[in-house]
Specification:
The protein is mainly α and about 180 residues long. The chain contains seven helices and no strands. The longest helix has 15 residues. The chain is elongated. The protein starts with a helix and ends with a helix. This is Cytochrome-c class 1 protein. Its cofactor is heme c. Keywords: Electron transport, Heme, Iron, Metal-binding, Plasmid, Respiratory chain, Transport.
């Protein structure tokens, strides 16, 4: 009887305990916020920090965000449709003709929501931060960002290897020796 009472008391205590809900690792997609669809550049009130234009500028002027955008462009296989920006089954990203607008917020919206006839929606699949980085990189393909921050072309896209990768050539006989070459070393 004594054991029965102790077991019943233990069960009552365990039933009264409430398990704590823990989130060990928040989902990166959970950081996604509501994004408004920008149809016009006109906005009420004073234009200040936090407008979509300022947000885009922060990404477009940052070399880290641009290089991450380039990495993510390859990672999510955007090359599959847009090639290296010149277009393929998807539209070209290097020219100045844009179906849905070439502004930063338009490109980010296209990536986030997708477009009819081929462009899939990445909403809920990748965080907003990465969408912004890809949009900034796409704008860099069109040379709409500062060139000192924009990532360079891949080596396989260059018309010829860079000078330091060329094989050494033998010296050419003839010519004149410059005065600096005649001075004692």
């Amino acid at each position: 009887m004594k054991h029965l009472l102790s077991i019943a008391a233990a069960l009552a205590v365990l039933a009264a305990c409430e398990r704590e809900d823990r989130e060990f690792r928040p989902s990166p997609v959970a950081t996604e916020g509501e994004a408004s669809i920008t149809l016009s550049s006109i906005s009420p009130g004073v234009v200040g920090l936090g407008t979509p234009r300022d947000i885009g500028k922060a990404y477009e002027e940052n070399a880290y965000h641009l290089s991450e955008g380039k990495r993510l462009f390859n990672w999510f296989n955007c090359k599959g449709c847009h090639a290296n920006g010149g277009g393929g089954s998807g539209p070209a990203l290097m020219d100045d003709s844009w179906i849905y607008g070439g502004e930063f917020q338009n490109i980010a919206q296209t990536i986030r929501e997708g477009r009819p006839n081929g462009m899939p929606s990445f909403r809920g699949k990748i965080p907003d931060e990465q969408i912004m980085q890809i949009a900034a990189y796409v704008r860099s393909m069109e040379r709409q960002v500062h060139q000192d921050a924009a990532p360079s072309r891949d080596d396989d896209l260059m018309p010829r290897p860079s000078e330091h990768r060329l094989p050494t050539s033998p010296p050419v006989a003839g010519g004149t020796v410059p005065p600096s070459g005649q001075a004692p070393q």
